[in-house]
């Protein structure tokens, strides 16, 4: 369980990104652009990348659920990319070894 969090030093956009990422259900992904739009600034996908990089651990964010607009893992660090793929697979998603999240429409 999370302890009380102090968002007072964060920008309003950063706060909204944190809330948007936390709201992504297990087994689903959103693009950086989707998260930016949900946070109120649809053209700020790169800012979402920065926020995830700096805030994921501190705010216990499910960062693995955020992918690029093509639906792929976009991390440049090979170890982190493999971790993201493993986490997404652990949530029941089909992800190729290259990091492409496959959509399964019923």
Structure description:
With 106 residues, this protein is mostly helical. It has a single domain, classed as Orthogonal Bundle (Arc Repressor Mutant, subunit A), CATH 1.10.10.10. The protein is built from four helices and four strands. It has helices spanning 12-22, 32-38, 45-55, 78-90; strands at 30-31, 66-67, 94-95, 101-102. A two-stranded parallel ribbon has the order 1-2. A hairpin with a 5-residue loop joins strand 3 (94-95) and strand 4. Helix 2 (32-38) crosses helix 3. The longest helix is centred in the last third of the chain and has 13 residues, at 78-90. The radius of gyration is 14 Å and the shape is globular.
What string, H for helix and E for strand, traces the elements in order? Answer: HEHHEHEE
Structural class: mainly alpha
Instruction: Kindly report the spatial arrangement of strands forming the biggest sheet.
Output: 1-2
Q: How many angstroms separate the termini?
A: 33 Å
Give the count of helical stretches. 4
CATH superfamily: Winged helix-like DNA-binding domain superfamily/Winged helix DNA-binding domain
What general outline do the C-alpha atoms trace?
Answer: globular
For the CA atoms, what is the radius of gyration?
14 Å
Helix content: 25-40%
Low-confidence stretches: none
Using the coordinates shown, work out and report the CATH topology: Arc Repressor Mutant, subunit A
By CATH reckoning, the class would read Mainly Alpha
């Amino acid at each position: 369980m999370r302890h009380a969090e102090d968002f007072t030093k964060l920008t309003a956009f950063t706060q909204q990104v944190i809330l948007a990422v936390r709201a992504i259900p297990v087994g689903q992904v959103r693009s950086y652009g989707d998260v930016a739009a949900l946070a109120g600034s649809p053209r700020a996908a790169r800012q979402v990348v920065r926020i995830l990089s700096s805030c994921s651990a501190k705010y216990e964010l499910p960062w693995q659920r955020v992918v690029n607009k093509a639906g792929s893992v976009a991390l440049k660090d090979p170890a982190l990319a493999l971790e993201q793929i493993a986490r997404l697979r652990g949530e029941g998603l089909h992800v190729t070894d290259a990091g492409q999240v496959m959509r399964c429409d019923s």
